[in-house]
Design brief:
Number of domains of chain A: 2
CATH topology of the largest domain in chain A: Rossmann fold
Structural class of chain A: alpha/beta
Largest interface: A-B, 66 and 66 residues
Low-confidence stretches of chain A: none
Number of helices of chain A: 8
Helix content of chain A: 25-40%
CATH class of the largest domain in chain A: Alpha Beta
Shape of chain A: globular
CATH architecture of the largest domain in chain A: 3-Layer(aba) Sandwich
Number of strands of chain A: 14
CATH superfamily of the largest domain in chain A: Dihydroxyacetone kinase, domain 1
Oligomer: homodimer
Largest sheet of chain A: 6 strands, mixed
C-alpha cells in the first residue's frame, strides 16, 4: 500500500487537522467529537444543514461546508458511517433557531445513525428533518444499502438546498427543495481499478487487468456487470441510457451534466467522457445548460467516474447559480 | 493500460472538445490550430497572457483560461511541447493592442517553441514578452530541462500575473510581476507511482512496491533520490527544508502554502501533507496567510504531490485574492 499517510488509524483525524489549517477562513473543526462546521455557525434564523458519512470521498462532505452550502459535515472513519454522537453535536452547533436539515446518503449505517441523532436532537428540543439521497440507478439494493445508493448527486442536493437555506427558506421549504433535487437527479458510474482502505491495507475487491465494473458503488460495491475494458465512448453509451431513461429525461428538458472523477482518474479522461455524454444528450434533444467536471465525490484513489444528470427548472438553476463559498466549490461572491 | 479514452492519439483533441462543451460560458476552443481562448478575447487595451505546454497536467493550463488569469492556453501532445504555430495563433487571438505575455515552464522544447512563436509574432508587429518559470528546487538540469524545471508554482505566476493584467498594468509591469512571483516561489515533489502516457501505453519509468522518488518532475523525471516509502510526515520533513532554505524563507515571512496533487492521490492524503508542512513553517516562524490544496498541476494518474511556498507581500496578496473566473479556479465574482 503506497499512500501519503502516517499511521493508518490516524488518517481521518490528521486530514481534519489539515482541513482546519488550510481553510480556517471558512470552517472550524471540532476534533472530538469530530465535525467540520462553518466558521460563523450557527447562523441565526437560517436553517442549518448537516451532512456526513464515511471518509474517503473527499471533498465530500467537508469541502462543501461554508456559505451557501453545508453548515456542518460529519466525517466517519474511511468508508464507515459516523456514530450518532458527532452527528448530534454538529446538529446542535448549526442550530440557529430555524431547525436543521440532515442530508443523508442512502447507506444502512448512515441512515440509522443520522436517524438516531435526529431523534436525540428532537428529544432535546431541536427540530430536525432528514432527506435521503438515492440517485444511483445502477442497482436496487447493494452491499451496504436497502434501495438505491446515494452517490455523486449528493453534491447537487447539498448545493441547491444550501442556497435555499441561504435565501431564507424555512425548514419545510429547504427539505422540499432537497427532495425535489433528489427526485430529478440520476447517476451511474464505472470503476477501472479498486482502491485501498488505509486500515485494511489491501483492496476490498479486485478487477482483472482488462476488466471494469459497470455501475460500481462509491465504496467499490458491485454494480450491474463486469465487462472487458472498452473505449470511453462505448462505456458512456452503456451508462447514459440507464440514467436518462429512469426519470425519464426527455427531449426539451434542460439539465445539469456532471462528470465526477473517483479520485485516480486524470481530468483529461473526465473531459473525454463529458464530450460523449454531452453528444448523447444533444442527440436526444436534451439541453445541457449547466456543467460540472472534476473529483467531487471520490473513492480514495479509485480510477473511474460517474455521470450525473439533474433536470433543471428556473428555480433550481437560480439556486445552483447562487453564490457559494466552500473549500471545493466557490463562485459568485 | 486502463484509461477512459478512445484512440490514444485522439486524447488531447477529444478532451479539448469536452472542455469546449463543458465551459462554453468561459472559453472558446480553436481545434486547428489547437488552443483554448477566453470567450471575450481579445480584451481591448489589456495585456494578453498565453501559457501552454504538454498535455497531461490538467487543469494546467486550459483550466486557468478566463477572467483574471490566462487569455489563452496552448496544449501540446501529452508531455510534449506544442509547436510554434498554435502558440503564434493564440498570441494573435489574445492581442488587444497592449502586447502579449508568454508564461513558459522551463523545459527545453517549451522554451524553444514559445521563443520561435514570439519572434514570428514580433515580426508580424506584435509586442511579446516572455517569463520562464523555474520553481522546482529538486534538481539543476534534468531530462528535459537546462536549469530548474517549471512545476506547480506556474499556477501562482499565472494567477497573479493575470490579476495584474486585469487591473490594467502595462506589459512591462505584468512581466515584472510574473518575474517577481517566480523569484519568490519554490516547489519540490515526491512521486509514489509512475503514470502511463496514452500513446506509449506503458509507464516511462518504474518504482518498486516500496520505493518513492524524492524530487520527481511532473513528467516522472528523476529527482534527487529514490528511497523506501516513509510516513507522510517524514517525507514532508525531507522536502520542506529544500524549499524553505533555497530563497530562503525566514521567520516573519508571510507565505502562501500550496499542496498540489499529481492526479492519482486522494485529497485526504494532500491534507495530511498540508498539516505537516504548515506545522514546519509555523515552527520556523513563517506565517501561512494563504493556502491552496488540490490537483492543479497533475501528471496524469501519477500518485504523489508537491509542496509549493510563495512569499507574499501586500501587493502579491491583493493580486492573488483578486477575482478569477476559470474552469479550475473561481472566486470573488
Amino acid at each position: 500500500m503506497k499512500k501519503l499517510i502516517n499511521d493508518p488509524k490516524n488518517v481521518v483525524l490528521e486530514a481534519a487537522s489539515g482541513i482546519a489549517l488550510a481553510h480556517s477562513d471558512i470552517v472550524t473543526v471540532s476534533m472530538d467529537p469530530l465535525f467540520i462546521v462553518r466558521k460563523d455557525a450557527p447562523v441565526r434564523g437560517k436553517v442549518g444543514i448537516v451532512s456526513g458519512g464515511g471518509s474517503g470521498h473527499e471533498p465530500l462532505h467537508g469541502g462543501f461546508v461554508g456559505f451557501g452550502m453545508l453548515d456542518a459535515a460529519v466525517p466517519g472513519p474511511v468508508f464507515t458511517s459516523p456514530t450518532p454522537d458527532p452527528i448530534l453535536a454538529a446538529t446542535h452547533a448549526v442550530d440557529g433557531g430555524a431547525g436543521v436539515l440532515h442530508i443523508v446518503k442512502n447507506y444502512t449505517g448512515d441512515v440509522l445513525n443520522f436517524e438516531t441523532a435526529a431523534e436525540l436532537a428532537e428529544a432535546e428540543g431541536l427540530t430536525v428533518r432528514s432527506v435521503i439521497v438515492n440517485d444511483d440507478v445502477a442497482v436496487k439494493d447493494s452491499l451496504y444499502t436497502a434501495g438505491r445508493r446515494g452517490v455523486a448527486g449528493t453534491v447537487l442536493v447539498e448545493k441547491i438546498a444550501g442556497a435555499a437555506a441561504e435565501r431564507g427558506d424555512d425548514l419545510d421549504a429547504v427539505a422540499a427543495i432537497a427532495e425535489r433535487v433528489n427526485a430529478e437527479v440520476r447517476t451511474m458510474g464505472v470503476g477501472l481499478t479498486p482502491c485501498i482502505v488505509p486500515h485494511a491495507g489491501e483492496p476490498s475487491f479486485t478487477l482483472d487487468e482488462d476488466e471494469i465494473e459497470i455501475g460500481i458503488g462509491i465504496h467499490g460495491e458491485p454494480g450491474r456487470e463486469r465487462i472487458r475494458l472498452e473505449p470511453a465512448d462505448a462505456i458512456v453509451d452503456r451508462l447514459l441510457p440507464h440514467i436518462v431513461d429512469d426519470v425519464p429525461f426527455v427531449s426539451g428538458d434542460r439539465v445539469l451534466l456532471f462528470v465526477n472523477g473517483m479520485g485516480g482518474t486524470p481530468l483529461v479522461e473526465l473531459y473525454i467522457v463529458f464530450r460523449r455524454a454531452a453528444e448523447l444528450l444533444a442527440e436526444r434533444g436534451i439541453e445541457v445548460s449547466r456543467t460540472l467536471v472534476g473529483n467531487f465525490v471520490s473513492s480514495l484513489e479509485m480510477q473511474g467516474c460517474s455521470i450525473t444528470v439533474l433536470r433543471l427548472d428556473d428555480e433550481l438553476t437560480e439556486l445552483y447559480d447562487a453564490p457559494v463559498q466552500t473549500a471545493a466549490l466557490r463562485w459568485g461572491r
